[in-house]
């Protein structure tokens, strides 16, 4: 599903907030990797405004001298996940970081909708206001 909406800002003299939300499905195989990479490159070339966005969520305080264990981009690599504990420097003996890293291809699935179904009717349209 994709939501692509512009929201008017409350308490602002001008401007709107553009939100484009896409629900992505993680894949456990590489069969869609080339298609996804081609799609990303095509979108980048079509964006003539120079704007782009990405999301990486990583909660990590510090990492040094980590073991070299790369996940390969192939069928075997897609099945692997690095799942290790790392001792934290300058902390107690029981202080460690447990990290699980897995390689996945994120793919936007295009749903088939009937002509009378509208995505906009499923979206609540709250106003966006400027915080104090």
UniProtKB/TrEMBL annotation:
- Cellular component GO terms, alphabetically? endoplasmic reticulum membrane
Region described as Disordered: spans on this chain: 110-132
Q: Name one GO molecular function term.
A: calcium-dependent phospholipid binding
Write down the superkingdom of origin: Eukaryota
Please name the PANTHER family in this protein's record. EXTENDED SYNAPTOTAGMIN-2 (PTHR45761:SF2), EXTENDED SYNAPTOTAGMIN-LIKE PROTEIN 2, ISOFORM C (PTHR45761)
What is the protein name for this chain? Uncharacterized protein
Give the species this sequence originates from: Pipa carvalhoi (Carvalho's Surinam toad)
Upper taxonomic lineage: Eukaryota, Metazoa, Chordata, Craniata, Vertebrata
């Amino acid at each position: 599903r994709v939501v692509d909406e512009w929201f008017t800002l409350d308490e602002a003299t001008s401007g709107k907030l553009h939100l484009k939300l896409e629900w992505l499905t993680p894949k456990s195989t590489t069969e869609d990797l080339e298609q996804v990479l081609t799609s990303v490159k095509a979108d980048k070339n079509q964006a003539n405004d120079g704007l782009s966005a990405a999301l990486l969520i990583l909660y990590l305080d510090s990492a040094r001298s980590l073991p070299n264990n790369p996940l390969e981009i192939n069928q075997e690599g897609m099945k692997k996940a690095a799942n290790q504990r790392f001792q934290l420097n300058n902390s107690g003996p029981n202080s460690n970081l447990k990290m699980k890293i897995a390689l996945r291809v994120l793919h936007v699935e295009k749903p088939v909708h009937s002509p009378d179904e509208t995505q906009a009717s499923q979206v609540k349209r709250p106003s966006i206001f400027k915080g104090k």
